[in-house]
Amino acid sequence: MSSIKLFMDELVFTFKKMRGSPLSIVGSVIVVFYVCLAIAAPILAPPQPGRDPYIMPSYGISPIPKPPSNEAIWGTTEGQYDLYYGCIWGVRTAFRTGLITTAAVVMLGIIVGSIAGYFGGKVDEIIMRITDIFYAIPTLVLAMAIVVLFGVGLDNVIKALIIVGWPTYARLMRAEILRVKNEDYVEAARAIGCSNFRILVKHILPNAIYPVLVMGSMNIGNIVLAASALSFLGLGSPAGYADWGSLISLSRNWILGLPGNPLAFWHTYTIPGLFIFTFVLGWNLLGDAFRDMLDPLIRRR
Amino acid sequence: MHLREYIIRRLLLLPLVLLGVMLAIFMIMQGFTPAQRAVVFIQSREEMLYINEIIKRYHLDEPFHIQFFYWLNNVLHGNLGYSISANMPVSQAIITYFPATVELVFLAIPLTLLLGLTFGILAAVYRDSVIDHVVRFFSISAWSLPTFWSAIILLAVFYGVFGIFPPGRLSVQTVLSLSQTRFISYTGIYIIDGLLNGRPDVSWDALNHVILPSLNLAILSSALPMRIMRSSMLEVLGKEYITAARAKGLSKWATIWRHAVKNALIPMITVAGTMVANLITGVVITETVFAYPGLGRFAAGAATSLDMPGILGFALFAAFIYAITNLIVDVLYCFIDPRIKY
Amino acid sequence: MTNLEEGKVLEINNLVVRFYTYAGVVKAIDNVFLYLKDGEILGVVGETGCGKTVTALSSLRLIPNPGRIEGGDIFLKTDDGLVNLMEKNEKYMEKVRGRYISIVFQEPGAALNPIYKIGEQVGEALLIHRKAHYYSEALRRVEEKLKVERNPFKRFILKLEVKICEKLIEDPNSSFSILLSLPLLNEVNKLMETLIKDDVIYLLKIMGLPDPERTYNRYPHELSGGMKQRAVIAMALACNPKILIADEPTTNLDVTIEAQILHLIRELRDKFNSSILYITHDLGIVAEICDRVAVMYAGNICEMAGVKDIFREPIHPYTKALIECIPRPGKQFKSIPGTIPNLINPPSGCRFHPRCPEAMEICSKEAPKLREVKEGHLVACHLYR
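^ inputs. structure came back:
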C-alpha cells in the first residue's frame, strides 16, 4: 500500500537526520540499553519458580532495609525485598506502562482527532468542548481522582493516564488534519470521486499522522514519570511489585537513616531513583531530537 | 472598550467550564451506588449513620438531572462533602490548608522565575558556550527528574546529613510557644504573620521549613521557563531592532535588558498556564515528602485513603485556580504587547 | 593612505571579514578599500550577497557572531582628529555609533522595536549621546524654578536635585541617576522628558512625518512603510552624525514613497552637508543621487569612480556587464552567465574570473589590486595595470 511506503520513507529520512546530533545519540544509547535490560530481565534476575515474576523475592520479614550482601546484590528495601531484582524487573514494568499507555492514547487521539478534524461542524465543536473539560484540570490531579474512583492498582493507573492523556493527541491530530485537508491532493482525490473514508485513510492520515507519533515517542518519558509518581503516592502497584515508584515509596521511612549515620539506607532510594531518572532522560533526549527534526520536516513539505 | 468586553466574556466562560468539569465528574460518579455517592453530601462523621435519609434528601435514586441539580446547589453553597482523611468538611479542609500551600508557592514562584529566566537569558546571550550547554543539559535533566526523588534527596542531604531545613511547617517549640502566647493570624502565612506580630523568630522558623520544598518545586518548575526563555531570546536577538539599538550606541547589556528581554518575555506568558499546572502537580508530591501540611498533602492523603469527596473537592479547586490563571494570562497579554487588540 | 585630507571623512582599508560557520569559513570580505568624502553620496553597488551590508556593519564594528573582522583599518575623522576604529575598544565604539556614524536598514519597520512607542525610540537615540546636554538644560530650568519657589521644603528638594544634576553633568552615566527617578526627586527627569520630547517631535517634523505629536505616541505597527522608514531615518539622524549609511532603504517601499525618501536623502546632503554611504543593487538610484560609485563583487571592490565616469566609461568587465544588464526598451534581455561564487571556497585569484568574458591566465592565479587608472577612477583588474 502506498501509504505504508510513504510512512517508511519518512522514517528512514528521520533516522538519517538523527545521526547528526550528539544528544540524540546519547538518548538512543540509553533507550537501547534499557530495551536490552528489559529483554534480559529473566536472565539477569531469575524469577523464583511458580511465582509471578513481577513480585520481588523477599528475604525475611524485618522491616529494616539491609545493605548490599551476597544474597541481595544491591541490598534490600523495607520488607526485605531484593532491590536489584526490583529494579531490573522494574524496567519491564516501566516499558509496559509507557508503551501501553502511549499506544492507547495515540490510537484514541488519532481516531477522535480525525473525526473532529475531517467532519468539522457540530461534531468538531462537541469534541473540542470535551477536550476543554479535560484540559481544565491539571493532569496528575485528574489521574489521582480517577484512580480513587476506580480503585488502586497499576492497571487502573494505566487506565487513568489514558483517560487523562488522549485529549492532547486528539487536538494535535485534529490540527494536522485541518492543515492537510486544505492541500491540493485532497481536493484532487475528492474530484475523482473518492469516498470520505478512502480519502481519510489513504491520503490524509499518512501525512497528518507523523507529528502525532513523534509526540507520542516524546511523551513516553513523562508517562513513566507520572506513573511512578502515582505509585509513589501509593495509588499504583502494591508493595512488593517490581515498580520503581513503589520501591521508592518503600524507602520513605528510611530517608533519614539512623542516628549518627544519616545515609545508612541511601541505596533504597538512590538506586531506583537513578533508574527512573536515566530512563526518562533517555526518552526525553530522543524525543527532543525528534522534535528538532520535525520542524525542518514540516518546512520541507 | 474591547478589553472590558473581553474580560467580562472570559469571566462568564469561567463558571461554564467549571460546570462542564463538574458535569463530567458527576457522570463518572453515576457508576457507583447511591450509598457510595451519598458521601459527597455529608458534612460530618455522624451523618454517615443516616445514609438512607441522605439518599432521600438529595434524591440520589432519582434521574440524573435532578441529582445534578441538587448536587450543584450544594456545591454553590460551599458544601463539598465530608473528608474522612482530614476529618472535617472538604470546604473547611481547603480553607485550612490553603494558606500553607500559598506560603510555599509564594516562595517557589520567584525562585523559579529567577532561576529560569536568568539562565535562559544567559544561555541565549552566550550561545554555544559552556553556560549554554550547562543550561540545556540542566533543563532537560530537571524535566526528567521525578519530583519525589529530588525531594527525598534534598531531604536526606540537607536535613539528614547537615541537620538544617527540617521538614514540616513549624518546629515543635514554635508550635508550643504559639499555643501559649497571643498570635493573630492575619494572612495565614507564618513568614508574614510572624513579622506582623513582632515575632521574627516565628518567621525565621517558618522560612527554614519552607525553603527545601520551595527549592524542590523551583528546580522542577524552572526547566520549562529556562528552555522557553532561551529559545525566545535567541529569536529576539536575531531581530534587526536589536542591531539597530546597538547602532544607536546602546551598550550590549543595555540593549539586552531594554529591548531583548521585554520582547522575549511575551511568548513566556503562554507557558504560564502550563507552569501553574506543573506547580499544582509538584505541590502534591513535594508536600507529601516534606510532610508539609498544605493542600497538596491533603490531596495525597485523600487519594490514598480513597476519600472521594476529598479528592474531588481538590480537583475542583485545582481546576478553579487553573482557570483563573489562564484568564489572568490572557488579559496580561494585551497589556504587554501593544500589537494585540481585542 | 593614512591621511584623511582631501576632505575624506571615512576610509576603509584592507578590510577582511570572515564568518566561522558550521558549514565552513565564509570569506565574506576579502580585501575592501573605499573612502567617503565630506558632503558626498557614495553608492555601493553589487548583487545580493556580495558583502555590501557586511562592509557597512564593519565600519560600526557590529558584525554578529560567528563573524569576525580579521584585518584592516577603519579611519574616521572625529572631533578629536583622525582615529583608527580598529584600535578602539567597545566603549569607544558606543560613542561613535549613532553619533558619528549611523545606519538605516532595508526593512522599514525592522529597526523599530514593536513594543515601544516611536517617540520613545527616537528619544532613546537622543538620550544616549546627549545626556549631559539635557541635564544642563534641565538644570538651568530647575534653577529658574528655584528663584521663584517660596516653600522651604520644595526649595530643599530642588536644591538637592540641582546638586545631583551637577554631578550627572560631569558623569552622565553614574548611578546617581537612579536617585532622580525617585518620586519626590523627579523634577529633573520630568523636565528632561519634555525637552527630549520636543526635540523628537521637531525631528519627526523635518523628516516629513505628518502630525508629529500624534506620531510620537504611536506604535510601529500603526505606521505605514514609508512613515516607518522616515521614523527610522529620524532615529538615525537624531544626534547629527557626520556619516549616514543607508543599506537599501527603499528596496521594500513602493516607487512613490521611494522617490520621497530619495529626495529626503538628497536634502540631507545639500542642506545638512551629511556624507552618505548609499548601498543598493539598483543602478537607477545610483544614477539619480550618487556622486561617486563603488562596485562590489563577492567581497571585493572592482571599481570606484565618479558616477558619470562609471556610466559613461565603465572599465571593469563586471561593471560593464552590470550596465549592459539594465533593461532598455527595444534591447534584448541580457544577464551575466554563471552564479555568484560560494564564499567558503571562493575562486582563486580574481573572484570574478570564472564569469569574466575577458579572463586571462593570470586572473585565476593572482587577485588584482585596486589601482588608480584615471583621475579619481580606480579599478581592480589585470587588464589595466
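The radius of gyration of chain A is 23 Å. Residues 297-301 of chain A have pLDDT under 50 and may be disordered.
thumbs up if we can close this ticket
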